[in-house]
Amino acid sequence: MANAITFVGCGVFTLLLFMSILFAGPHLLLPATFMIVVILVGGFCVYIANGMLQRRAEIMKEWED
Predict the structure, then answer these.
(1) pTM recorded for the entire structure
(2) Three-class SS of the chain
(3) Rounded Cα–Cα distance for residues 46 and 35 (Å)
């Protein structure tokens, strides 16, 4: 569930930043592009962290048995 929320959130914010580039003009291109990259990298980090936590939970469950 967290991965779906992460992907949707990253997509929405990326779309908003693309729209801000279109509406504000080319002088906003560099900062908005940097923010888009930061959002996508952050979403990827959340995706990896969530996978690590899920795998840890599986390992802990195996050790309990």
Answers:
(1) 0.76
(2) CHHHHHHHHHHHHHHHHHHHHHHHCHHHHHHHHHHHHHHHHHHHHHHHHHHHHHHHHHHHHHHHC
(3) 16
The answer to whether the beta carbons of residues 40 and 14 sit under 8 Å apart is yes
DSSP conformational letter for 61: H
Q: How far apart are CA 28 and CA 20, in angstroms?
A: 8
Question: Tell me, what amino acid is at 1?
Answer: M
pLDDT digits (tens, 9 = 90+) for 21-54: 888 888 888 888 899 999 999 999 999 999 999 9
